[in-house]
């Protein structure tokens, strides 16, 4: 019973936005934009035909907004029930998953690349190329290692050329059109 994207995005919660803005030292207007992107992520995860979707370091800022929203448990629960017909659980990576990754890093990297290619295509198909570029090329530069290190959150550093390669990948995956943020 997933609602339309428009209905998912129409929800507002000034308390969530303010809590995030206050905690991460961003303007309320910026936090509102991140909240909208996090609602897109939730909506995407509510779709029946979705592939497995993973929160990666590139979209950590969406995950942090999701964490903030979950803290407002009643609001979050009501949002999920009214938009998706169910509670959208947040599941962090388990110790077992981390151990499996460490045991076979090459196999994990190969699998992850394949899964991410599927994820990128799914995001672009449902939310558009602009969202894909924003999440995986722009957000890692704006809200990457240096940003989160101030809050004790350890993310890998991302070089600007990685974001440039992502832009090129997005453009090539979609008929060679230039992708724009």
What does this molecule look like?
The protein has 181 residues and is an all-alpha fold. The chain has one domain. The protein contains ten helices and no strands. It is globular. The protein starts with a helix and ends in an 8-residue tail after the last helix. The C terminus is likely disordered.
What general outline do the C-alpha atoms trace? globular
Helix segment count?
Answer: 10
* Order of SSEs: HHHHHHHHHH
Helix content, binned percent: 55-70%
Largest sheet: none
Q: Assign the structural class, choosing from mainly alpha, mainly beta, alpha/beta, alpha+beta, or little secondary structure.
A: mainly alpha
């Amino acid at each position: 019973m997933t609602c339309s994207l428009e209905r998912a995005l129409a929800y507002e919660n000034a308390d969530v936005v303010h809590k995030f803005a206050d905690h991460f030292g961003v303007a309320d207007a910026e936090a509102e934009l991140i909240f909208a992107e996090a609602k897109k992520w939730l909506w995407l995860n509510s779709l029946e035909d979705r592939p497995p979707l993973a929160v990666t370091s590139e979209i950590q800022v969406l995950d942090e907004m999701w964490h903030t929203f979950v803290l407002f448990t009643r609001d979050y629960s009501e949002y999920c029930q009214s938009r998706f017909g169910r509670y959208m659980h947040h599941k962090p990576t388990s110790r077992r998953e981390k151990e499996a990754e460490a045991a076979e890093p090459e196999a994990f990297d190969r699998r992850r690349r394949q899964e991410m290619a599927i994820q990128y295509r799914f995001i672009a198909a449902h939310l558009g190329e602009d969202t894909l570029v924003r999440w995986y090329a722009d957000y890692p530069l704006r809200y990457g290692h240096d940003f989160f290190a101030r809050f004790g959150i350890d993310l890998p550093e991302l070089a600007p050329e990685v974001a440039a390669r992502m832009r090129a990948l997005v453009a090539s995956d979609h008929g060679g059109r230039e992708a724009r943020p």
